[in-house]
Amino acid sequence: MATTTTASYCFIGTGFSNSFGPAPIHLAEITPSSISIIHTFSSPSSNPSCIVSHPTSPILYIVDETRFGTVQAITYSNPTLSSPTSPPTLTPLATPISSTGRVPCHISLSSAGAGAGFLLVSNYIEGSVAVLPLTPRLSLSPATDSKAHQYCAKDGYASLQDRQEHSHAHCAVVSPNGNFALVADLGLSKVFSYDFDSSRGSLQGSFDSSRHLQLRRDCGARHLAFSKYGDFVYVTCEMTSTLAIASFDEGTGNLELVEELSTLPPNQKPTRDHHRGDSTVVVSPSGKFVYVGVRVCDPGLIAVFEVEGGGKLTLVGHESTRGSVPRHFAHIAGFLVVANQESGNLVLFLVDEEGDGVGGLKFLDECECPGDGKPTCIAQAF
């Protein structure tokens, strides 16, 4: 258990505001026993539903999850130096860059290669993923490559027309060794494995490559995370409320299904209702546990799996998120912070993997997010 005795900070991306104005970005302060919103910023993006922070510099990358599809880099001031007379600031580094598609719903950073790194962005409507290089100043350059999963469901899949009528890319992550990019496509229930050329910022591989992972057609692959050592991949299946575990060959990029497990409590059935299936997946710091967001129930749940040998997982229990629709959670300085989208609250858990809580989670505190922007994503402030 590695927690800090001083305050830590994280940004909260919000989205899907009930008003016509842009959704805000919040700054939260975390102490060993509490979480609170200490500042609210007017966002340069109208719908900053997904945000990610640079690991070594005070830079935040934000999407505008709209049909105009942009991504932007902004710099922030040190939260520890702020005061009532000198509040923290967010300042755009440059103008927004096209995501090359509509409704960008997920971004992730990669430091692969000799340059400053890359941002991978998933565009929901087109079912596409794009690679945007970082400049030496850590702002964004126009995309160097993109992949579009052009596919429409056949008549035999009429029951899947709600959100699986065609491709919907929902998450893209570069492998730990930097050689591959995995893309979870909710519309196709498929995880694509592309060669990632970090010298050019390009994705290589065919649509029908045998190394991709085809899951059950109705499951809806949403988010993914690598195991601690990068040899397995955990994929949340939104529509069926299951977690798919696949082996990952770090030399070839090949994915093979190991098993698919329910994330639900006994007698609870999955639902295809919008924003009600499983959401994100996070691996505990030691790699011992895997946490999955379950949005079917009210309040929402974190399904906790314990990692065993050979990629096998065992469901060991559930922890309440004390709010509705847990869209995202993240590790922040020895804590797990949960964003409950519909109830509008943040929940703080201590992560003590040797403790007696379910999966080492111990509830500490919660707070409400002000305004009508709904909390959708969490990124650490460094």
Question: Which key terms come to mind for this protein?
Answer:
382 residues; mainly beta; 5-stranded antiparallel beta sheet; 0% helix; globular
- Helix content, binned percent: under 10%
Shape: globular
Distance between the termini: 20 Å
- CA radius of gyration is 19 Å
Structural class: mainly beta
Classify the beta-strand content into a percent band: over 45%
Could you report the average pLDDT, rounded to the nearest whole number?
Answer: 92
Largest sheet: 5 strands, antiparallel
Give me the strand/helix succession: EEEEEEEEEEEEEEEEEEEEEEEEEEEEEE
Per DSSP, the total helix count is: 0
| DSSP summary, beta strand count | 30
| Low-pLDDT runs | none
Would you give an account of this structure?
The protein has 382 residues and is mainly β. It has no helices and 30 strands. The strands form seven sheets. Strands 4, 5, 6, 7 and 8 form a five-stranded antiparallel beta sheet that branches. Strands 13, 14, 15, 16 and 17 form a five-stranded antiparallel beta sheet that branches. A four-stranded antiparallel beta sheet has the order 3-2-1-30, with no helix packed on it. It is globular. The protein starts with 7 loop residues before the first strand and ends with a strand. The mean pLDDT is 92.
Overview in brief:
The chain is built from no helices and 30 strands.
How would you summarize the topology of this molecule?
Blueprint: E1 8-15, E2 25-31, E3 34-41, E4 51-53, E5 59-64, E6 70-76, E7 90-92, E8 97-98, E9 104-110, E10 118-123, E11 128-133, E12 145-148, E13 169-174, E14 180-185, E15 190-197, E16 202-204, E17 213-214, E18 221-226, E19 232-237, E20 242-248, E21 255-262, E22 278-283, E23 289-294, E24 301-307, E25 313-320, E26 326-332, E27 335-340, E28 345-351, E29 361-368, E30 374-381
Antiparallel strand pairs: 1-2, 1-30, 2-3, 4-5, 5-6, 6-7, 6-8, 9-10, 10-11, 11-12, 13-14, 14-15, 15-16, 15-17, 18-19, 19-20, 20-21, 22-23, 23-24, 24-25, 26-27, 27-28, 28-29
